[in-house]
Write a structure and sequence with these properties.
There is one protein chain. The protein is built from 22 helices and 23 strands. By secondary structure, it is of the alpha/beta class. Among the domains are: about 170 residues, P-loop containing nucleotide triphosphate hydrolases (Rossmann fold), CATH 3.40.50; about 140 residues, Orthogonal Bundle (Helix Hairpins), CATH 1.10.287; about 160 residues, Taq DNA Polymerase, Chain T, domain 4, CATH 1.20.1060. The C terminus is likely disordered. This is Chromosome segregation protein SMC. GO terms for molecular function: ATP binding; ATP hydrolysis activity; DNA binding. It comes from Ferroplasma acidiphilum.
C-alpha cells in the first residue's frame, strides 16, 4: 500500500484546510525550525498511532486544535491510502469539543466507523509503529541511553515476545486456579469418603433386604406361574372331558335315532293290531285305548320332565362343587392375607419402636447441647417443636382411618356393583338363551305343525299311490291269468330242452352267459314270419361273452348228458361280407332292407345278429322277390325263402308257435311289470309306515315343546325380575359411591392441607439447620444424620402403613367373598333339595300312571278273549315298544347326565378361567421375568418362609441408603474424575508453559541473530569499513539477560556505544534502526531529524540508504541536512505565515529542484 495524501484542518500549526500529496519514493521535508515540519508526522500518528507507543507531541487533547481567537472547537486529519489491490481508503479522525469535553470520531471512506474497525484496517496494511517504522526526534538518544535490560525488552517487543509472556502469564494464572480447585476437591473427596463409610453398613442391609425380597417375589412369581400351568392343564383336561362327553352324546343321539325307528315300527304294528281289534270291539274298547294312549303320552312327558329336572339338579350339584372349591380357595387366600397382615403389623411396630428410639436419642442430644448459646437453644427448641408437629402430621396422614374406611366402602360398593353387573350379564345371557330357546321351540312347534300338515298330505298321496299300485298289480295278475288261459288253449306246447334249462340255471350263478338269441332281440310283429324263417334254428343259439364260457357250458351239459346246444362266443364269432348283389338290391330301393337292420337289441350282440341273419334281404311279396332271385338270399313278409342257388322254400307257417311266442313274451312283460310294482308297493308301504311313525313322533315332539315353552317362560320371568332387581341395586350403589367419593374428596383436601403443612415445616427445619450449622457445624452434622435416619424410618412406617391398609382392604374383600360364597352354597343346596323333591313327585306320578296303564291294559285284554292272539301280539309289541321307550329315555337321561357333566365342567372352567385371569393379570403386572427353580412347591414355600424370617431379623431398613450411597459414590467418582482431569490439565498447562518459554527463547534468539547480522552489514557500509556487534549477556537465559551495542569505527578499537561521539552514536543507532526495519518491513517509514548529529559525509551515506529503501516502501524524512535532499524523489518545503499558519510547497525533483 501507499499513503497517497494527507488532508487536515485546524490540526496544530495547520490552521487552514491543507492537502499534502505523498508520492512514491523518498520524500524529504525541509524548512526552518518551528515551521511545522514534524507536525506532518504528528498528523499521520494522529490517525495511525492510536494504539502504539509512539505518541504525538502534545500534553493534552486541546493542543491538537490550532490556536485561534476565538478558539476553534474541532480539528481533523484524513489519511488517503491506496491498497495493494488498488482499493482507495480514506481514514479520518476528528476531534470535537462538545459539552465541556473532547471526543474523537473515526470515519472510513466518510462513513462513521468504530475505533476497532480502524485498527483492523491499519493492521491489514502491516504498519508496525513500534518496530521503528516511525522514528521520532529523540528516539536515537533514547536508544543510546537504554540500559541493557531495556534494549533486551526492545528486542522482545520487536519479536512479539509480549504475546508469549501473556500466554505464559495466562497459563500460570490457570495453573494457580487449578491448584485452588484441586485443593477444594481434596477436601470434598475426604468429606464424601467419610459419608460413604457411614452409609456402607446401611447399604449392605438394604441390599440384603432387596436380595431377600427379590427372591421372595421371584419365588412367589414362580408359584403363580406353576398355578397358571396347573390351571391350564386342568382346563385342557376338562375341555378334553367335554369333547369326550359331547362325542358320547352324539353316539347316544344316533342310537336314539335307530331306537326311534324301531319304536315307530312297533307303534305302527300296534296301530295295525288296534285297527283289527277296532273292527272286533265296541266303544268301550275305544275309550280304554284312548286312555292308554293318553297315559303313554303323559308318562313320556313326565319322564322328560324328570330328565330335565335331573339335568338341572346335576348342574346345580356341579355348581355347588365348584362354589365349594372356590370357597376353599378363597379361605386359603384369606389365611395368607391374615398372615401377611400380621407380618406387616410386626414391621410397623418395629418401625414405630425405631422412631421412638431415634426421637429419644435426638431429644437427649439436643438437651446435652442445649446450654451452648441462647440462639442455639432457641433453634433447638423450634426444631423439637417442628419434629413434634411433623410427627403429629405424619400420624394424621398414616392413621387417616376415615379415608381408608371410605376406600373400603368404595371397594365394597365396586365389588357389589361388579357382582351385580356380572349377575345382569349372566341373567341377560340366560334371558337371551331362554328367549332363543322359546323362539326356537315356537319355531319348532310351527315347523312341527307345518310338517304334520305336510306329512299328512304326503301320507294321503302315498296311500293313494299305494292303492293305485295295488290296483295296477291286481289288473296285471288278471291279465296274466287270461294270457295263461289263452296259452293253454293253443296246440303249441313248446318246452325248453334239458340242456337249455341247465343253461338257464347256470345264468343265475355264472357270468358271461346271455341266453338264447331269440330272447335277446325285439322286432315288429309284421316282421315276425320273416325274422323267424330268416334265422331259423340260430334263434335258439346261446350267446356268450367268449369261447371259454362256451367251453364251460358245453362241458356242463356234456357231463350231465343233457343234449346239445349251439353257442355264439362274441369274441370269436366270424361273419361273411355282404354279397355284392345283396348290396345292389338294397341300394336299388326294390327291397325293404336287410333283415338284420329290422332287429332291435343290445349293441354288444350285433355280431351275433350278423351271424344269424347274414345278408338276407327282406322283400314284400314272392312275386317281386322272384325278379331278383339267384345270387342273393331273400325272405318275404309271409316267410317265403329264395336261396342264392335258386332254390325256393314256401307254404303255410304254423301260427301257434308264433302266437305262443307272442303270448309268452307278453306274460313275461307283465310279470316284469309286476316285479317292479311289487318293489314300488313295498317301498310305498315302508314309506307309509315311516310317515306314520314320523307323524306320531312329530305330534309327541310338538306336545313336549309346548310343555317346555311353559317351563322356559316361567324361568324367563324369574331372570327378568332378577335383572331389574340388580339394576335397581346398581343405581342405589351409584348414589352411595357418589356420596362416599364426595366424603373422600373432603378428607383428601384436608390431607393435602396437612401435607402442605409438612412441606412448610420441613422448609423451616432446613432453614433452622442452616443457621445451626453456622453456629455449631459439628453438632449439626450429627443431628442431621439423626434427622435423616428418623425421616427414613418415618417413610418406612408410611410404606408399611400403606401396605397394611392395602392388605386390610384385600382381607375384607376375601372375607366378603367368603360370605357371598357361603350364601351361594346355601342357595344351591336349597335348589338341589327343591329339584330332588320335584323328581320324586314326578316319579310318584309316573308310578301311578303306569299302574293305571296296566289296569287299562288288563281291561282291554279281558274285553274280548276272541282277540287273545292279537292282544298277545299287541302286548309283546307294546312291551317291546315300552322297552324301546325306556331305552330311549335311559339314553336321554344319559344325554342329560352328559350335558350336566358338560355344564359342570364349563362351570369349573369358568371358575378356573377367573382364577387364571386373576393370576395372568398379576403375572403381567408384576413386570418380572420367569425364573425356573429346581425345587418342589413345598421347598419353594419353605424358602419363602426362611427369607421372610431373615427380612424380619433385619428390622427397620434404610432403603434410601442404597440410593444415597450410589449418589455419594457417583459424586465421589465424578469428583475424582474431575480431580484427575484438572490434574491432567494442570500438567498439560505446565508442559505448555515450558514449551512457550522455550519458543519464546528461540524466537528471541532468532530475531537477535538476524538483526545482529543486518546491523553488522549496515554499520560497515555506513562507517565505510567499521565493525559493530550486538552482545547478550546469556544465551542460555536470554529473556533475563542484557543487550549491549558495541562498535568499532574505522581505525578505532571496539568500544561500547556510550563512549562514542554524537555523530558516531547516530550512525550506529541508525544502522540498528535500519536493521529493525529490514526485519519487520513497513509500507511507509517516517524519520524525524535523525541526521541531526551527522556530518555531511555521514548524512550522504544515510540519505543514500534511505533512497535505496524507498524503492520498496515510501520513506518520508524531516531533514536539516542539504546532503540528504540530493537523494530525495520529492521535496516538501514548510514555512509559516504571519498568522502562525504552516504553508507547504511540494515539488518533485524533476519539477524545478534537482538532485545534488
Amino acid at each position: 500500500m501507499i499513503v497517497d495524501s494527507i488532508e487536515m484542518e485546524n490540526f496544530k500549526s495547520y490552521g487552514d484546510k491543507q492537502s499534502i500529496k505523498i508520492n512514491k519514493g523518498f520524500t524529504v521535508i525541509i524548512g526552518p525550525n518551528g515551521s511545522g515540519k514534524s507536525n506532518i508526522g504528528d498528523s499521520m500518528l494522529f490517525v495511525l498511532g492510536i494504539r502504539a507507543n509512539k505518541t504525538v507531541r502534545v500534553d493534552k487533547l486541546e493542543d491538537f486544535i490550532h490556536k485561534t481567537d476565538p478558539p476553534k472547537k474541532h480539528c481533523y486529519v484524513a489519511l488517503n491510502v491506496i491498497s495493494n489491490e488498488n482499493n482507495r481508503y480514506s481514514i479520518k479522525r476528528e476531534l470535537v469539543y462538545n459539552h465541556g469535553e473532547y471526543k474523537s470520531n473515526y470515519y472510513i471512506n466518510d462513513k462513521r466507523a468504530s475505533r476497532t474497525d480502524v485498527l483492523k484496517l491499519i493492521d491489514s496494511f502491516h504498519i508496525y509503529l513500534d518496530a521503528y517504522s516511525f522514528v521520532l526526534q529523540g528516539d536515537i538518544n533514547n536508544l543510546v541511553k537504554m540500559t541493557g535490560t531495556e534494549k533486551r525488552k526492545l528486542f522482545e517487543s520487536i519479536a512479539g515476545i509480549e504475546s508469549y509472556k501473556e500466554r505464559i502469564e495466562s497459563a500460570q494464572n490457570d495453573i494457580n486456579g487449578l491448584n485452588e480447585n484441586l485443593n477444594s476437591m481434596d477436601a470434598v473427596l475426604l468429606e464424601i469418603k467419610s459419608m460413604l463409610d457411614t452409609l456402607e453398613v446401611d447399604r449392605e442391609n438394604a441390599l440384603k433386604y432387596n436380595k431377600l425380597n427379590k427372591e421372595v417375589n421371584e419365588l412367589k412369581f414362580f408359584l403363580k406361574v406353576k398355578d397358571r400351568d396347573r390351571i391350564n392343564q386342568e382346563l385342557a383336561m376338562y375341555n378334553g372331558n367335554i369333547e369326550k362327553s359331547q362325542s358320547d352324546i352324539d353316539n347316544l343321539e344316533n342310537e336314539n335315532k335307530n331306537l326311534s325307528i324301531q319304536r315307530d315300527e312297533a307303534i305302527n304294528r300296534i296301530k295295525e293290531i288296534e285297527d283289527k281289534l277296532d273292527a272286533m270291539g265296541g266303544q268301550e274298547v275305544k275309550g280304554i285305548r284312548k286312555r292308554i294312549e293318553e297315559l303313554n303320552i303323559g308318562i313320556a312327558e313326565l319322564k322328560t320332565k324328570i330328565g330335565s329336572t335331573g339335568e338341572s339338579k346335576t348342574n346345580s350339584e356341579a355348581r355347588l362343587k365348584t362354589s365349594r372349591e372356590a370357597y376353599n380357595f378363597n379361605r386359603e387366600q384369606l389365611e395368607n392375607k391374615l398372615k401377611e397382615k400380621k407380618n406387616y403389623e410386626s414391621y410397623l411396630k418395629g418401625t414405630e419402636n425405631s422412631i421412638a428410639k431415634i426421637n429419644r436419642e435426638l431429644e437427649k442430644f439436643r438437651q446435652e447441647n442445649y446450654e451452648n448459646s441462647k440462639l442455639t437453644r432457641e433453634i433447638n427448641d423450634r426444631l423439637a417443636s417442628i419434629d413434634i408437629e411433623m410427627q403429629q402430621a405424619n400420624d394424621q396422614i398414616i392413621n387417616d382411618y376415615d379415608i381408608r374406611t371410605i376406600e373400603q366402602e368404595l371397594s365394597g360398593f365396586s365389588r357389589e356393583n361388579t357382582m351385580n353387573e356380572e349377575k345382569i350379564k349372566e341373567e341377560s345371557i340366560k334371558v337371551k338363551d331362554l328367549k332363543w330357546k322359546i323362539d326356537n321351540l315356537k319355531k319348532n312347534i310351527k315347523e312341527y305343525s307345518e310338517e304334520i300338515n305336510e306329512v299328512n298330505k304326503k301320507f294321503l298321496t302315498v296311500r293313494n299311490k299305494l292303492n293305485e299300485l295295488v290296483t295296477m298289480k291286481s289288473n296285471n295278475d288278471v291279465e296274466i291269468r287270461n294270457k295263461e288261459k289263452e296259452l293253454r288253449g293253443l296246440n303249441y306246447r313248446g318246452t325248453a330242452s334239458p340242456a337249455l334249462r341247465e343253461i338257464n340255471s347256470m345264468m343265475e350263478t355264472e357270468s358271461g352267459i346271455h341266453g338264447p338269441l331269440g330272447k335277446l332281440i325285439e322286432y315288429e310283429d309284421k316282421y315276425a314270419n320273416a325274422v323267424i324263417v330268416a334265422a331259423g334254428g340260430r334263434l335258439n343259439s346261446i350267446v356268450v361273452d367268449n369261447d371259454s364260457v362256451a367251453q364251460m357250458c358245453i362241458q356242463a351239459i356234456k357231463a350231465k348228458k343233457l343234449g346239445r346246444l349251439t353257442f355264439i362266443p362274441l369274441n370269436k364269432i366270424a361273419t361273411s361280407p355282404d354279397r355284392q348283389k345283396a348290396a345292389e338290391l338294397i341300394n336299388s330301393g326294390n327291397a325293404i332292407d336287410f333283415v338284420r337292420n329290422l332287429i332291435t337289441c343290445d349293441p354288444a350282440f350285433e355280431k351275433a345278429i350278423k351271424y344269424a341273419f347274414g345278408d338276407t334281404v327282406l322283400m314284400d311279396t314272392l312275386e317281386n322277390a322272384r325278379k331278383h332271385m339267384t345270387g342273393v338270399r331273400i325272405v318275404t313278409l309271409d316267410g317265403d325263402v329264395l336261396d342264392p342257388s335258386g332254390a325256393m322254400t314256401g307254404g303255410s307257417i304254423k301260427n301257434d308257435e308264433i302266437l305262443a311266442n307272442r303270448i309268452t313274451k307278453a306274460i313275461a312283460e307283465l310279470e316284469e311289470q309286476n316285479e317292479i310294482l311289487k318293489s314300488e308297493i313295498s317301498f310305498k308301504e315302508k314309506e307309509n309306515s315311516e310317515i306314520s311313525s314320523k307323524l306320531a313322533d312329530l305330534t309327541r315332539k310338538r306336545d313336549i315343546s309346548t310343555s317346555n315353552i311353559n317351563n322356559y317362560e316361567t324361568q324367563l320371568q324369574e331372570s327378568e325380575n332378577s335383572i331389574e332387581a340388580a339394576k335397581t341395586r346398581i343405581e342405589e350403589i351409584k348414589l352411595k359411591i357418589k356420596d362416599a367419593e364426595d366424603r373422600k374428596s373432603n378428607f383428601e383436601f384436608k390431607k393435602n392441607e396437612v401435607k402442605m403443612q409438612l412441606f412448610t415445616l420441613d422448609k423451616e427445619r432446613k432453614e433452622l439447620f442452616k443457621k445451626l450449622k453456622e453456629l455449631a457445624p459439628e453438632n449439626v452434622e450429627i443431628e442431621k444424620q439423626m434427622e435423616e435416619e428418623l425421616g427414613n424410618e418415618m417413610k418406612s412406617r408410611e410404606n408399611y402403613s400403606s401396605k397394611l391398609a392395602q392388605i386390610e382392604t384385600e382381607f375384607k374383600h376375601f372375607t366378603e367373598k367368603s360370605q357371598e360364597l357361603e350364601e351361594k352354597i346355601t342357595g344351591l343346596e336349597n335348589e338341589i333339595t327343591k329339584f330332588t323333591g320335584m323328581v320324586a313327585e314326578f316319579k310318584n306320578k309316573v308310578e301311578a300312571m303306569e299302574k293305571e296303564l296296566e289296569e287299562n291294559r288288563a281291561k282291554e285284554n279281558e274285553i274280548d278273549s276272541r282277540s287273545r292272539e292279537l292282544y298277545t301280539e299287541k302286548n309283546q309289541v307294546s312291551t317291546a315298544r315300552d322297552k324301546l321307550f325306556e331305552n330311549i329315555r335311559k339314553n336321554d337321561d344319559l344325554i342329560s347326565n352328559k350335558k350336566a357333566i358338560i355344564a359342570g365342567l364349563k362351570t369349573k372352567i369358568e371358575n378356573l378361567a377367573f382364577q387364571l385371569e386373576t393370576i395372568n393379570y398379576e403375572i403381567e403386572n408384576t413386570g418380572m421375568e420367569y425364573i425356573e427353580f429346581n425345587m418342589s412347591i413345598s421347598e419353594v414355600k419353605q424358602k419363602i418362609d426362611e427369607n421372610s424370617r431373615e427380612i424380619e431379623k433385619l428390622g427397620a431398613v434404610n432403603m434410601k441408603a442404597i440410593e444415597q450411597y450410589d449418589m455419594e459414590l457417583n459424586k465421589y467418582n465424578s469428583t475424582e474424575e474431575k480431580y484427575k482431569t484438572l490434574l491432567s490439565e494442570k500438567n498439560d498447562l505446565i508442559d505448555l508453559q515450558n514449551q512457550i518459554i522455550e519458543d519464546e527463547k528461540r524466537i528471541f534468539l532468532e530475531l537477535f541473530d538476524t538483526i545482529n547480522s543486518q546491523f553488522q552489514k549496515i554499520y560497515a557500509r555506513l562507517s565505510e569499513g567499521g565493525e559493530a556487534n550486538l552482545e547478550i549477556t546469556s544465551r542460555d537465559d536470554p529473556l533475563n539477560s542484557e543487550v549491549y551495542i558495541k562498535v568499532k569505527p574505522r581505525g578505532k578499537h571496539m568500544i561500547k556505544i556510550d563512549a562514542l561521539s554524537g555523530g558516531e552514536k547516530s550512525v550506529a543507532v541508525l544502522a540498528l534502526i535500519l536493521s529493525f526495519q529490514i526485519k519487520n518491513p513497513s509500507p511507509i517509514y517516517y524519520l524525524d531529524e535523525v541526521d541531526m548529529f551527522l556530518d555531511g559525509h555521514n548524512a550522504e551515506h544515510v540519505g543514500e540508504l534511505f533512497m535505496e529503501n524507498s524503492k520498496t516502501s515510501q520513506v518520508v524524512m524531516v531533514s536539516l541536512k542539504g546532503a540528504v535532499t540530493k537523494f530525495a524523489d520529492n521535496l516538501i518545503a514548510v514555512t509559516t505565515d504571519k498568522h502562525g499558519n504552516t504553508k507547504i510547497i511540494q515539488k518533485r525533483i524533476g519539477e524545478g529542484i534537482g538532485k545534488g
